[in-house]
Structures are given as structure tokens and as C-alpha cells.
Request: fold
Amino acid sequence: MPYDKTLGTFFIRCRIKIPHQPFLSYLLILLSFLVLSPILGINKKYGGVVLKILFIISLIISIFYDLPASANYLSFSRVSFGVESDINSTIYSTKTGNFVAVGDGGFIGTSSDGIYWYSSNSKTGEDLKAIAYKFTAYGNDLYVAVGLSGTIIYSYDGFKWQQDLKITSKNLNGVINKSSLFIAVGDEGTILKSEGMGKWEKITSPTTNILNSITYGNGIFVAIGNGGVILASIDGTNWSQCQSPTSVNLKSVSFGNGIFIAVGDSGVILRSLDGVTWVQQNSRTGGNLRAVSFGDFAFFAVGQGGVVMLSGDGIFWEQLYTGNNISLNSVLYRNQIFIAAGFNGSGIRAYNNYIVTIPPFINLGQVTANKKVSQPFNVINKSNTPLTISHVSKSGSSQFTINNDFCSGVTLQPNDVCRIEVSFTSGVAGDEKASIVIKSSTLPVSSTISLLATSTGVLYNLNVSKSGNGSGAIYSSLGGISCGATCSGQIIGGSSITLYAIPSTGSSFVQWKGINSCTTTNPCSFTLTDNVAVNAEFQSN
Reply:
């Protein structure tokens, strides 16, 4: 469709689309003819023929040709990462609110806004190709970056880095995190797996093709690479090769909104709902696509010549006009900020400031066992037009719930505020995260607020007793049980407990009752998942 654009030296703003009206093209042709006729000396004899030809050309252009679409909710500007190295990958920390980028020559940069970048010492000069991030609501996060010659480095804050054990000399091109598991992929079909730094292991791969990228979603890992190769695994250890609809090199894969998207050379875009069965889509571009990412409301794909593609469903794609022609290697949309980076330390940034949440994210910290806590947040319309909030939805941990929603269906005037309240109920011990998406039906804009908390677990009762004609005492590794005196306690669910039965002089231990995993075993170890009553039988010798 035609578009309206304002282009400055350092700033490019994409504005509202002009409706597609072919008669405007006809009028333009007619006016051009009337103006140019005297100048070009077109006489009446041939003027009608020329006008008809121009009219037909205009009609064909109007029907079949689509100019790049503008995004009326993103304002694009050029950014510099302060180096001349290519930038290859970016991630966002939901806890700190920082973006972290990696690139050639061991470059690592950190930014809170995507504009000003500060470099860190990566402890390597190798090109870094990808970075992944493990979130913990309470405690240290973990960042892992991989690169050429089997390079693996890690950091707990994104600033101080150290090298991990190198177990391969193959180039590593992609890395992903799921819970405590990191998986890296690279040249010659290399797949590495780690459940802790310094504990990487090589995994058998069904291909020798170069693997360029990996993602996780819907309970499955998906890796893609050269020659159109697509691999899938449920556990990260056992991999199968999927049938691919293309033989071109695939460069990046991403998951979002229940959809997998892979992109590659010659504008190839593949779509899958299960990570196994793939269908090629019409990308409307022939340029090489180097990266794809899902953010808040849509997929973004970037690549050669600075192309930026946008799709809400992975089927219909439109090209955004950004004013940039620098090739891009990575793309990310988080916290209403779009960042695409690429050649020679250059990139573009856009900010969607239409729907803003205050605070920008919620971290409830540690929540004690069996406790429910709530916190409200405000949703503000920062645009200059009324916005109707059409959709408020939560994804992630079921321990988070939306208590009160005073935004859905509400039309917010500029700078108006509505309120949403969320709650968290402590469950099994561990870090929990979720997100709430707020969408507008007035404009294709949305905002996502991240929810973080650490559950200390549910408290269960552990009661012990003694039986038999003998005597003795029972002790526990947790819960303070010393029975004798204290024969009950409350312990966090999921905890590993060991009970010790100590017979008195002249007595002996016979058996445990109430724990199926232990009968005559002493001491007895088990995991507490419910209220438990345990009896230790002693007999007199």
C-alpha cells in the first residue's frame, strides 16, 4: 500500500497508512499528462493513446504493486553500538531491564534503553554468535554466549564474564535456555547440552549440516541450519530430523504465540504449529533473512539490506519502512522497545510508547509458603488518540492470576489510566514467571508486563510416632524433629528428608510404617509431597 513518510537525517518516523485508493493514481497520471503535454510536445492526435497507456500502467501498479507498509506505532532511529564489529545476537533481562548484545571480536554490550551501549570484557577475542539468558526471580541470573572455535562464556550479571570449559573446536552458532538446561548448536551438526556451567556434554546429532539457531516452545526444542535442515527434540538429548519444505540455508528460528517461525536465504519463511510439520509462506521479499524473533504481539524478521518484516500470525507478512539499508543480523522486541543490530556495529531502534504500564515489571521477590500476595499496576494511554483496551491475557505460571481487571473494554483517552491487579500464591519451591499482554483494538499496539516471584513452597506436616515393646528416638534432617520431645514439624513441599531411627540400649529398630519407599531401611530418605504420618517400630531385645 502507499505510505506517508517523514525522513530526517538521523530520525525516521513511520506514520499512519494512507488508504489504498487507485483513483488517486489515475488523477496523478492525468495531471502529469496535462502538465507534461505542452513540454513534451504531445499533440492531440497521439495524446489520447498516451493517456490510455499511462492509465493502464497506473491500474496495473495500483492492483499488483505494494509499497512497503508503514508501522503507525513504531518510531525508528539509527543506533550505534560503539564498535565496528558486526552485532550478531541480543537478549533482554526481565529482572534488570537491560539489553545485552554480542558480536564479532568478542564484543559484549549492555544497554538499559537500546540507545547507549556500554561494552564489557568478554575474556575472549573470538566472534560471539549467540546469547541466551536464564531468569531467576530471586538470586543470580545466568547469561551464556557462544561463538567460533567452540567458545562458551558465561556471566551472572551480564557485565562480568568468564570462559567455560571448551569441549569442541567447532563453531557454535546458537544457544537456548529452558529451565536449568542450556543447549548450543553449531557447525557439522554439533549439539552441546549443559545443566550447569563446566558440565557440557556432546549430544549425538542426526545431521552433519551447519546448525545456525535453536529455540524452544510447546514442549519441544527445534534447531535449524544449512540445506534447510530442521531438527526436533523433546528432552534436548534425543534428536530427530524433520521433513523440510526447502533446501536453502535456514538462519534463525523463533517461537511465540503457539507458532514456530524459521527464516533463511532468498526470503524463505517457514511456519509450524508443532515444530515438526513445516509449511513455507510468502515472505514478499527475495533478500536473505538472518534473524527472527517474537515480541509481545508479532514476529519480526530482519536481514540483508536492512529489510524488516512484520507478521502477527506468521502467514501474512508486510515490510516496514525504516529508512535503513544496513544489513541486520539480530532482532528483538521487548518492553515496548524494538532493536535490530547488524553490520559494523550499527542498528535501528524503535519505541512503542502508546500503551505504558507503571511499573514496567513486577518482582514480588520471595513469597513464603501458603501465602497469597497481590499488587496492582496502572495502564496508561500515552498516544494522542483514544485507545480501546480489547484484550488482557496472562501466560506463564498458573500461580499468578489476574484478580481485578478494570481495563478490558475500556476506552482510554490520551493520558487516561486504568488499573489491573495481579496476585501470586506460593506453591512448590522455585522461581516463577508469567506475563500479561494488554492489547488495543484501535491501533495494532500492545504492551507486556513481566511478573516475577520466588515461591518458598507449600508447607506440609510431618508427624512421627513410635510403636512396639522397645524404645528409641526419631530424628529428622529437616523440620527440627527430635522424638522424644518434638514429634511433628512443618516442612516445605518438595524437600528431601531423611529420618533416623535410633534404638535405645536393649532395643532394636524393626520397621517404618507410613512410607512406601522405606520399610526396614534405616535411615529412611524420601521427598515430601504431602502431609505424612510416619511410625517407627522398636522391639526389645
Q: What stands out?
A: The CA atoms of residues 23 and 59 lie 9 Å apart. DSSP finds two helices and 47 strands in the chain. The chain has a mean pLDDT of 84.
